[in-house]
Amino acid sequence: MHIRRDSEEQLLLKLKDGSETAFSELYEIYVKRIYAFALNILKSPVLAEDIVQEVFIRLWETSANLDPKLSLQAYLFTIARNLSLNVIRKASKETLITDEIARYAQDKNGNGLTFTEHRQTREFIAQAVSQLPPQRKLIYELCHGKGYTYKQAAEELGIKDATINSQMVKAIRAIRQYLIRNGALLFLLFFRSQ
């Protein structure tokens, strides 16, 4: 799908003013292409969906500073590429860290710390999810808990894909804020760096 430059510019101007409708239209225009691009890099549908979600979170968060005269497509694909490469770098580091933790746990004849860390992480996230509004919580649980794609969740609930994306953006932002407010994010980062 090719969007006329002047239409995109008008949508960006509306988005700069906080228009959720303009955001939804831009989401519909770019979501499939960004997903395909991220999937091509990451080879994982789940990770590609996460990248798409993060791209649109960033679009929303930076919308007030966007220059409507510049190419939104180039901007979104640059974000998607950088995030995808960050995922690859992070996965590489996490593999090394996970291997080190496993070696340490084997040397100490136990994995109680790892088990406790995972349990506490799940508890923090569960507490954050329980604070979400009912519809947002349901959408989050379908997508993250049951592994539904955004499209599957939209079909299940009879709503638009863009609504699912918007609610997931808000859910993840609320979960992050909950973790930060309650010191859980620092806890998780501390234990992951040990």
SSE topology string = HHHHHHHHH
Oligomer: single chain
* Residue share in β-strands: under 5%
Strand elements, count:
0
Largest sheet: none
Measure the end-to-end span: 48 Å
Proportion in helices: over 70%
Rg is 19 Å
Number of helices: 9
> What's the pLDDT, averaged over the residues?
79
Q: Categorize the overall geometry.
A: globular
Q: Report the uncertain regions.
A: 107-111, 190-194
Specify the structural class: mainly alpha
Quickly list its features:
single chain, 194 residues, mainly alpha, 9 helices, globular, disordered C terminus
Word description of this protein:
By secondary structure, this protein is mainly α. 82% of the residues lie in helices and 0% in strands. Helix 2 packs antiparallel against helix 3 (45-62) and helix 2 (20-42) packs across helix 8. The radius of gyration is 19 Å and the shape is globular. The termini are far apart. Mean pLDDT is 79; it is low at 107-111 and 190-194.
What's this, in brief?
The protein has nine helices and no strands. The protein is mainly α.
Write the layout of secondary structure elements.
Elements lengths: L4 H12 L3 H23 L2 H18 L9 H36 L4 H19 L3 H12 L4 H8 L3 H21 L2 H10 L1
Helix pairs in contact: 1-2, 2-3, 2-4, 2-8, 3-4, 5-8, 6-8, 7-8
